[in-house]
Write a structure and sequence with these properties.
The longest helix is centred in the middle third of the chain and has 14 residues, at 84-97. The protein has an eight-stranded mixed beta sheet with strand order 5-4-3-2-1-11-12-13, sandwiched between helices. The chain has a five-stranded antiparallel beta sheet with strand order 7-6-8-10-9, with helices on both faces. The radius of gyration is 18 Å and the shape is globular. By secondary structure, the chain is α/β, with parallel strands linked by helices. It has eleven helices and 13 strands. The two termini are 21 Å apart.
Amino acid sequence: MYKAVVFFDLDGTLFDNQKNVSDDNIAAINQLRENNIIPVISTGRNIFEIQYVIDATGINSLVSANGSYVQYQGKKLKAEQISDEVIEEILAFAKKQGDVISFYNNEEFALTAENDLTKVNYRLLRLTPHVEPDFYKTHEVNFLNVFNYDKDKLYQDEFKGELSLVRNNPRCLDTMKWGVSKQTGIQALLKKAKLGDIPSYAFGDQLNDLQMFAEVDYPVAMGNGHPDVKAKASFVTTSNVNGGIVNGLKHYGLIK
């Protein structure tokens, strides 16, 4: 039986600014294991995007795609699928806005088109996209990105009851089945892995971490985090590049 569970967001949290996990953070994760505490990645990213992180950290329990795909100790626990009907609705709406959409599952992704936003986004994520507008017709889709700077409310109002949309970075909206979030992914993992009776902690920095914070006992905001995230935290640690993970874990006595 584990003593506690700790959920880690990646970008701006467990990652440094080059999208890598530092040696100090890897050492902290190893200390958690030595202390019989289970580390879990909880991210807006999809599993295929972060295989190098799984390899570096040894973490194989994940809440990915903002709760759309969940695995425990390397085995799938839950996968949401967005229907073709809903995808076609949002494709039509996005076309009117002049916006690009990307389709994701746990293994791969594709774009409806490329533009300046997608080029910057995937360069930063170190991913090579391909354009396949009909990807959803032949592949399961767990998750979408909608590329724009400032149309959050427009899409949220249009697809209320069908899709949940939350901004993960300035360039795009993470898009899940209605009601799906890091919180629902964490709920599924805690229940199915029988981890609900131990203390839970979460480290995050952005708005898509707020629902995760609502589910755990001790939410920890990074020093570089969004003000709204800091306001909901039980502790605000230092930044992701200034020992934030290590300092937060030490604050709660999870590592020495």
